[in-house]
Specification:
Elements: H1 2-37, E1 41-45, E2 56-61, H2 67-73, E3 84-89, E4 96-97, E5 118-122, E6 125-126, E7 128-129, E8 142-146, E9 158-159, E10 172-174, E11 196-198, H3 214-219, E12 232-234, E13 242-243, E14 256-258, E15 266-267, E16 280-282, E17 304-306, E18 328-330, E19 354-356, E20 364-365, E21 378-380, E22 388-389, E23 402-404, E24 412-413, E25 426-428, E26 436-437, E27 450-452, E28 473-475, E29 497-499, E30 507-508, E31 521-523, E32 531-532, E33 545-547, E34 568-570, E35 578-580, E36 590-592, E37 600-602, E38 614-616, E39 624-625, E40 636-638, E41 646-647, E42 660-662, E43 689-691, E44 697-698, E45 720-722, E46 727-728, H4 731-749
Parallel strand pairs: 2-3, 3-5, 4-6, 5-8, 7-9, 8-10, 10-11, 11-12, 12-14, 13-15, 14-16, 16-17, 17-18, 18-19, 19-21, 20-22, 21-23, 23-25, 24-26, 25-27, 27-28, 28-29, 29-31, 30-32, 31-33, 33-34, 34-36, 35-37, 36-38, 38-40, 39-41, 40-42, 42-43, 43-45, 44-46
Antiparallel strand pairs: 1-2
Length: 750
């Protein structure tokens, strides 16, 4: 009887457990179903530049089970005058969403969305857009469906051939990033008003299946005739391999075509046949190595062609013939040699404004290569192998504003190379092998403002530079210049920035820069400067930024006294042992003295009324800090990696703007708590942060405060200490601890 009762009890227990499981499962199903129908959150958002009536209704949901059903479950108040709706599915858990086919049965239950113009469905994992899925939104202007299906590699999207039927007013359709592999040829024929179609970031492999080829209708009369007015087509970031003849010939109104970042290796002769109104063509980042001679025979209205980042090694003569509207041509990052880029390459391109031939294999520039480019304003020839430029090669470029010849193999700039460029503003010849520039090389270049000669082999500053009366920026760093004199800069009265970094300059005279009254930025870093004459910068009263780091300077008394506008000064990595803050102008806000040999410094707040906000004294030989060490205006103070052993009480108390102090990696053993004490800090201000790790602190009673200082924030008189601390525990304490552990272990064994 007892056994029977036990069995009954067990059966009843199992039955009860099953009931619980069923109930929980039912609740889960109901909850999931409800979550799929009811929006998790809906709120109106408007942007500052937009009127309130253009506000967008954002709804975050888990999934879409039926778009129409979803919209009916949004509060009716949201439907009043609703123009834009943005639906976003959850990213936390991946749930599949579905769009139901529209039928006549539910047409009467349509939501009142007569004014809806913009609909965005984002991050909802949809496998298929069925027939007439959006038919109820007859006045829709813009539709974006971006599922990010690629996050589920097995989930692709299929488009029914009547998926967009009924959207006669649609202007813009975005189907990017949906993992679409193919489309039906008639899918987009229903969109009579469509002007912009984005199919980027999918896996389309055959451009003809998109349905924009007239040849398909010729082969099969049953194919629907499409009267499309499409102006922009984006097929970038797909898997297209070839652009076949007449593949887009239906698109008579197409103006912009984006085919970049595919795997296109072949362009057939009639690839762009019928595209009479095409203005922009982007074929960059593909695998194209040759181009048919008549590729652009139908596209005479082209204004921009981008063929960069391919493997093009052949450019047929006359390829661009007749493209008299072309303004931008980018052939950069290819394998073109001077055999194919020559005097016949750009004939007739009278309206060309931008030409990019960088990152190719050009070795020379012919005399007549650019003869017809009278409107050219920007020419980029950097990263080639150019060793020779024929005289007057740029003669016809009367409107050229920017010329880049950096990263080539030029060794000599002769007299007649640039003299025809009367309106040039920018000239960059960096990273060549230039040893000499003729004295008259820059004659007639009265408008040039930026000149780059960085990383060449010049041993002195070229005298030809003096004729550049409008020069604002000069970069002559990374050369072999060892001497600077006042005559080098005569005539450069408008110079704003001068870069002389990484040369071999050893000293600066008092008149070195006297012809540069407008100089505001000067970089003398990484030279071999040992001596700077006091008053060296006396004429440079507008100087705001000065770099002299990485030299061998031991003292700077009297150097900066006249620089009343100096804001930023870097004197790091020199050989300075001591200094007085009075040496710096009151305007200075940023001072870097790290990696010197500084042992001591003077600061008298009675006489120094400066405004230093950032002070870097790290990696020096400083051993102590006193109450008067640091100027009161400092906000960020770097003292890490010194030899600091002692910090006087109240050292930081008067630094009312302090926000950061680094004291890590010093020699602090014991510190009085009041050394970190601050004056009362306002409730509205953050407490300063002190970094003190990497010090050999002794863990004894005098240092117990270090464990509780972060709990004293309510007093508003102590900083927050950051990073883990390393304590040096006395040997006796370690022995005592070991004895205690041993006793406890013995007690456990017993």
């Amino acid at each position: 009887m007892v056994i029977k009762q036990t069995v009954v009890n067990r059966l009843e227990g199992r039955t009860f457990n099953r009931i619980i499981v069923y109930v929980l499962f039912y609740c889960h199903v109901v909850e999931r179903s409800t979550a799929a129908e009811m929006p998790h959150e809906c709120a109106y958002r408007s942007f500052e530049a937009e009127a309130p009536e253009n506000a967008i209704l954002f709804c975050k949901i888990r999934t879409i089970s039926s778009l129409e059903h979803l919209l009916r479950n949004i509060s009716r108040t949201h439907f009043d005058d609703l123009i834009s709706l943005h639906v976003q599915c959850s990213e936390i858990l991946f749930f599949e969403s579905t769009l139901a086919t529209h039928t006549d049965k539910n047409s009467g239950k349509s939501s009142d969305l007569s004014k809806l113009r913009d609909l965005v469905i984002d991050k909802c994992k949809i496998r298929q857009i069925p027939a007439r899925a959006f038919e109820n939104f007859k006045d829709l202007k813009r539709l974006h469906v971006t599922t990010h299906n690629s996050e589920w590699s097995a989930m692709t999207m299929e488009l029914h051939e009547q998926a967009f039927s009924g959207l006669n007013e649609l202007i813009e359709l975005n189907l990017s990033d949906n993992n679409i592999w193919s489309t039906k040829t008639e899918t987009f024929c229903w969109l009579y008003s469509l002007k912009t179609l984005n199919l980027s970031q999918n896996h389309l492999q055959n451009i003809k299946t998109v349905g924009f080829s007239d040849s398909l209708r010729e082969q099969n009369l049953s194919v629907r005739s499409c009267n499309l007015v499409l102006e922009t087509l984006d097929l970038s970031y797909n898997d297209l391999i070839v652009v076949t003849d007449n593949s887009l010939s239906k698109l008579r109104s197409l103006s912009r075509l984006f085919l970049q970042n595919n795997a296109i290796s072949s362009l057939e002769v009639g690839a762009f046949a019928g595209l009479l109104g095409l203005h922009v063509l982007n074929l960059s980042s593909n695998f194209i190595n040759s181009i048919p001679p008549d590729l652009f025979s139908d596209t005479k209205s082209l204004k921009e062609i981008i063929l960069s980042n391919n493997t093009i090694n052949v450019l047929p003569p006359g390829l661009f013939e007749g493209l008299d509207q072309l303004q931008t041509l980018d052939l950069s990052h290819n394998e073109l040699t001077s055999q194919w880029i020559n005097k016949g390459s750009f004939v007739g391109l009278l309206r060309m404004v931008i030409l990019n031939l960088s990152y190719n294999r050009l070795t020379k520039i012919d005399r007549y290569m650019f003869q017809d480019l009278n409107s050219l304003q920007k020419l980029n020839l950097e990263h080639n192998d150019i060793t020779n430029i024929e005289e007057h090669a740029f003669e016809e470029l009367r409107n050229l504003h920017s010329l880049t010849l950096s990263h080539n193999k030029l060794s000599h700039i002769h007299t007649h190379l640039f003299t025809d460029l009367h309106v040039l503003h920018e000239l960059f010849i960096d990273n060549n092998k230039i040893r000499h520039i003729d004295e008259n090389a820059f004659d007639n270049m009265t408008t040039i403002e930026d000149l780059g000669l960085n990383d060449n082999l010049m041993s002195s500053i070229p005298s030809s530079i003096r004729k550049l009366r409008s020069l604002r920026s000069l970069d002559i760093g990374n050369n072999n210049i060892s001497h600077l004199s006042r005559d080098h800069f005569r005539g450069l009265s408008e110079l704003f920035g001068l870069r002389l970094v990484d040369n071999k300059v050893t000293y600066l005279n008092e008149d070195t820069f006297e012809h540069l009254p407008q100089l505001q930025v000067l970089n003398l870093a990484s030279n071999k400067i040992k001596h700077v004459t006091p008053g060296c910068f006396r004429k440079n009263i507008n100087l705001k930024l000065l770099r002299m780091d990485g030299n061998e300077i031991t003292s700077f008394d009297g150097i900066f006294s006249t620089l009343n506008n100096l804001v930023w000064l870097n004197m790091s990595a020199n050989k300075i042992v001591t200094f007085d803050f009075k040496s710096f102008p009151n305007s200075l806000e940023w001072l870097d003295l790290h990696m010197n040999h500084i042992e001591s410094f003077l600061n008298d707040d009675l006489y120094y009324t400066g405004n230093i906000k950032l002070l870097d004294l790290s990696h020096n030989n400083i051993s102590q800090l006193t109450v008067t060490s640091i100027p009161k205006t400092v906000e960020k103070l770097y003292l890490n990696d010194n030899y600091i052993q002692h910090i006087q009480v109240a050292t930081f108390s008067k630094l009312q703007r302090l926000s950061l102090v680094t004291l890590n990696n010093n020699k602090l053993v014991q510190v009085d708590m009041n050394a970190f004490r601050l004056d009362q800090i306002d409730e509205d201000s953050d407490l300063p942060e002190f970094f003190i790790s990497g010090n050999p602190f002794v863990c004894d009673c005098s240092m117990e405060w270090i464990q509780r200082i972060n709990y004293l924030s309510h007093s508003r008189q102590y900083p927050r200490t950051c990073h883990l601390l390393i304590f040096s525990v006395p040997t006796k304490a370690i022995v005592s601890l070991c004895v205690i552990v041993a006793i406890l272990l013995l007690a456990t064994v017993k």
